[in-house]
Model the fold of this input.
Amino acid sequence: QIMDFQIEIPKEGQIANNVRRSVDAGQRRSSQPLVATEETLVCSFLSLARTSFHGSQQISTPRVTTSQIERQTPPHPGLGQSDAMDLCGHRLHVWSLAGVGTSIVVKLNPHGGGKKRKTIAFDCGVLPLNEKAGGPVILGVDAVFLSHTHVDHCAALISVARAKGGTLTCYCPASAVAALTALRDIYAKLDAGDPCIAEPESPEPAAAGAEKGRNERNPFGLTIVGVPTPEPGAEVEVATVGGGYTVTAFATDHRIDSLGYVVRSTRKGSILPALKNHKEKIAERAKQGLPIYGEPTVTVDIVYTGDTTGDGLVPVPVVWQARLLIMECTFFTGVSKSSKDAAFAKSRGHIHSEDVASFHHRGLLDATEQLLLVHFSTRYTGQVRELARAELPEALHPKVVLALGAMGGRDCSLGSLFGQHQGGGEAEADDLNQEAAGSKQ
Done:
């Protein structure tokens, strides 16, 4: 349905100038000669059609039937284009559209320890782009955490590993490891070792017992690690990502095996009061192996729910302890015939705006500092702000941030957390990036 169009392969010698120019441009970027055969032309048209579908551009050629594309095209600026958001001290690039793609890249605040910011990704369905450099920010990730393996949440994984160079570790539900590994190996055979991808100057050292780096068996350097499904309400350890951050996982309720993820930071405790300004006492206690600092502070910085029902989150205590809660909200009640109720959302393994309102009324969101809602259905394109304002409790608005980049809008706060606007139409929506940085409108 998405790619419903026809291409007529031109006869030999009849090559459109614009397509030849596209092929020539590709040749300049490649170290290998590129021949404008019928096969490469078909690939060029396919790429153009996909870009046009996701970029709201029309395909100006009589050889392509675009009626289906035009009828379904959401008005967002381009696949993967994403502005940066600063939430609870972390920088996020979010591109999320239900059924199309979800990638959430998080550059963690270094307050957990260390000077360099660690970067992780929740799901890998598209390539979020850096708004300044125009490059895929996801290529800088240290690890990818897949909530589940529906295509819109994992389709870009192989591309990211291939383009990133070096190594990449992907954590996913244990039941998906065999399929993802097979997929990786199939793509490796199809790819046949592209010489355009440069090897990193300083490859990461191989970890004991792990197949790290690019080699004949794993040319993309992609290591896939299975995460066992925790007991309901419990967590399992997943990874230490550095900078004082650890990641755990909890089970969620979706149509296939799925996980949510928790990012915690550990800060060193303060020096004991009796030792302040007493270097000799500190040195003496250090020699004796006695504690110098107080207990470390552990904070639940981020929780990512992935796709799940509301009922799947309620019994998980850690979800409601997060400073930043990234939660899917696929469906709203709305007023159109295409809108769905909470029962339908539950049957499809998703969260409805009624669930979010219920979480608030039950006090589950009291400790949440910021609630980032993602994964909206395309049926609500251009309506999410109004629907969220109408269907979510007004007292919750100051905490709510809507990830609208995939729909062509600006990520915005419903309340005054990033500005003075309260409610109103789309024209009053704050630019989260500008307000978070204190920039002028």
